[in-house]
Amino acid sequence: MNTDDLIASLAHDVQPVGRHGPGRWLAAGMMAGALGTLALVGAGLGFRPDLGVAIHGAAFWMKGIYTASLGLAALAATARLARPDPGRMGWVWIMVLPVLGLAVVGAVQMAATLPGQWLAMWLGHSWRMCSALVLVLSVPIFGGLLWFFRRMAPTRLRAAGAMAGLTAGAWSATLYGLHCPEVSAIFVLTWYTLGMGLAAGAGAVLGPRLLRW
Amino acid sequence: MRASEGELRTWMVAGLAGDADAYARLLRHLLPVLGRFFRRRMAGRESEIEDLVQEVLIAVHTRRATWDPDRPFTAWLFAIARYKMIDHFRQHRSHCPIEDVEHILATEGFAEAVGARADVGRLLATIPAKQAEAIRATRIEGLSSAEAAARGGIGESDVKVSVHRGLKALARRVKDSIL
Hints:
The structure holds two protein chains of two kinds. By secondary structure, chain A is an all-alpha fold. Helices cover 73% and strands 0% of the residues of chain A.
């Protein structure tokens, strides 16, 4: 096609484009994905029966704040990586802060517990399933983010995929907290973090394939 | 005449608001900008360059909502161009010659490029304005001597002499500042 004709046909189609489109698409993709994950937690696993009591306890909020703060930072990074020129991304290292914070809480809890109980604290009742469930539950949110990316223009596909995976994993872990009754910080630090890391790794592998445009 | 970041940005903003004339002007002015971008990296492959320019124009159009008006327009444009070029190389299993890699990397160092430009600008300010303008036109913007002469309204040999004297003066300045 002749370049002049191309320009003429492109300039013919100029519906106004608002600057808030990407933000709205991201919100829509996240909402749809999170609803899917929430439905899986509710229908597949069941919310923890003592949820009404648990939300008054510190352990419930410790988990929620840990995973949600990682989720917020990863979401912000995902929004940047969905644009062609993400700019400097060094600030994503603030994500080590929640991890360090939880490690401190874990150390304090261990200091207050007899060494003989440390293994039980670390493994809880559900260590075998926890990470795998976080990974599986991240799939709907990852799907919502893929829908968002299809309308955007990422250029660093592996980084974008990894960050989308981490976002999906962190929010899936947050919603999984509505089912999981574990209370110790070192349990969350190990198995939740492993689940989120697996989701980020899967995203890094899939990114270059799924995010091309 | 080369369109500046400011002009491109103005047309883009108007185009996003639905102004078809400004938008067509933007796309037309992107042609030489993109042509230069690709020619510098894959010289001599004219038909591929033409395809890539068209592909980037289409990408600019369909992905125009992904430009953040708080960030430079050209940085966004070149990020798309670079992505499309790498994608093109991948699809055609060809490789870019090793001496071009530094150009590709250079476009990523936007801040460094701006810093270097500021340094050059400071140096150029120390030599006569006519020589500085001749150097800027032929060595930085990449115009030919004839184009620079037409733009400055002076003779072509005048441009060449100015460039020659200016570069000599610059070399002296740099040497003095190092020694």
